[in-house]
Amino acid sequence: MSKATIAVIAAMSAGAGAAATAALYSMRSEKKAEVTTTTTTVVATKGPAVPVPVPASQVFSGNQTTTAPVPVPVPVPVPSPPAIPTTGSSPAAPVNPAGLFEYGFPGPIADLATRQALISSYDRRTKNPQWVVEHITPASLAVRDGDRKNSTFLEDPLIPEKFQAKLKDYFRSGYDRGHQVPAADCKWSQSAMDETFYLSNMCPQVGDGFNRDYWAHFEDFCRRLTTRYPSVRIVTGPLYLPKRDPADNKWYVKYEVIGNPPNVAVPTHFYKVIFAEESTAPGGKVALGAFVLPNAVIPNEKPLSDFEVPLEAVERAAGLEFASKLPVQRRKRLCAETSCSIVVKEYAERQKAFAKGK
Amino acid sequence: MSKATIAVIAAMSAGAGAAATAALYSMRSEKKAEVTTTTTTVVATKGPAVPVPVPASQVFSGNQTTTAPVPVPVPVPVPSPPAIPTTGSSPAAPVNPAGLFEYGFPGPIADLATRQALISSYDRRTKNPQWVVEHITPASLAVRDGDRKNSTFLEDPLIPEKFQAKLKDYFRSGYDRGHQVPAADCKWSQSAMDETFYLSNMCPQVGDGFNRDYWAHFEDFCRRLTTRYPSVRIVTGPLYLPKRDPADNKWYVKYEVIGNPPNVAVPTHFYKVIFAEESTAPGGKVALGAFVLPNAVIPNEKPLSDFEVPLEAVERAAGLEFASKLPVQRRKRLCAETSCSIVVKEYAERQKAFAKGK
Fold it and tell me: Are A231 and B96 contacting, i.e. CB atoms less than 8 angstroms apart?
């Protein structure tokens, strides 16, 4: 992947100014360069990463489609927990740095929360989720037992009080409490939907023109994928991307922190990594798509494909890895398989619902 | 702790302007309020935090001093690894969000590195350490086998390549590769000192007036604590604190990102949490001090005690916890036990050494 990609993503803005357009075009040409040759990094548990060059044809190969049988949950291997040192020095050393852990391990602790319809990982520093993962299927979306007007926003009691995002932090902040896993994806159960209202599933999002508009249409795009794929997994989360300051030509990350005292970071961008599974049987092909959208007003006319980015760009920016165990042979490129575009429908209807619920 | 403390710390600046001075005074009065009554948060593994009010007299009690015997490494209990969900839904749920982990667990992974003289935890998003812990004793500082002129700065191969801070990111950035565990604390072995030169032990620091001056004097203060305490543990790391913009009265975090493309965050502040152990036997009293310094020129005349902050303020800002297993009965307040002040000595000498080494 071109080294410039992340910088280009960082420069992304929803504005229609010439600079932004140039940045987007430049990103898109980076993307094309990306497709011609790519690199998969194989991470050893305790050793350096070994970059393995992979021909692009193996990354997104094939064009097979399947019909959608009733989905079956896939058994999940338990990821290895991170190793924590017990002694920090050789017997000959005059010091023992690991002795500190007698007073407690500093962390970071990600406050993983496993709920019916989502799993979230929380960042105690930014008081935002790091990622939230969900699973939708034609069957799960067909059931309509939950209604968001019965749900209320909640502080997450699984997070220690001093690291919690608070309802009062959002109050009069000017930002929506923006669902990362959308409530509308969890209508199959009122209690599952209620659980999407924990603040550990929220980020401060620009309301009009983003959370209530383009972002909502993007969420709708994800749901519509279930008409083609029997099982769709989506990881969503915030990013804090640098932007070049023309005054000194340096790159700066700048984001607001809401609350009094300031507590919850306002992300500059949001990502979604989409895994559209062609089959619910183990080992099937997976259409992968990664998107980064600015936390800003985006005109509905903007093509969704403008926001497609290489997966590795999201990984570098987020400090996370999303598909380290997914062999390249099983990967396809979502936007080569299906049209990556939003449908602006039921606009007035949606506005009305949002006005009630937000 | 007063809710305003973190905001006030955030406003801290090394500048001598009236606003900064006001912020520091206000922080200091916050600190006094803090001492009169404080709260310890007991964190349950899977439940909500239970705030337990603790009288201030129990937090920093006693005034006992000890002489310094030869230190003995303390046996370290293994901290519990974080729980990672294996299935994300009840049997009745139509979805299984945990199925995503089949493709790999997203992280975050902290890249703990255990070296002879330090243990570091790395932030793959900011490409800085989260914390670095060291241990110094009168005996360890007495041995002088290592010399920094034999050491070279190194990219850390324990970190996957795509998340590494790189030497080229720092090159011509205008910032020092600022040791978090100082090389000078590890003279007891050349190889131990060499290991402090991994970039996983570095943050971009302002050179003149900070890393080569006030910060160096602060490191010297830590070493001098070993004349009174037989064992001193220090946790050091970066912070990214918000500052109020007078233009719109909102709080913003703003930091530079160095490298081309931008890769390594430039922290706005640095913390040290100091555990000065009165005894090397288990269960002894510990003099605790927490400090937050801006990554900026600080005049040598500025009292070190101006930068003392409540431990909880560092914890909230860093999203970490440093003393969750240290009972309040064992805690004393470092700056009540000893004079928290820098000594500006061997200035020309130090400058010469830095000019060579940095």
Answer: no
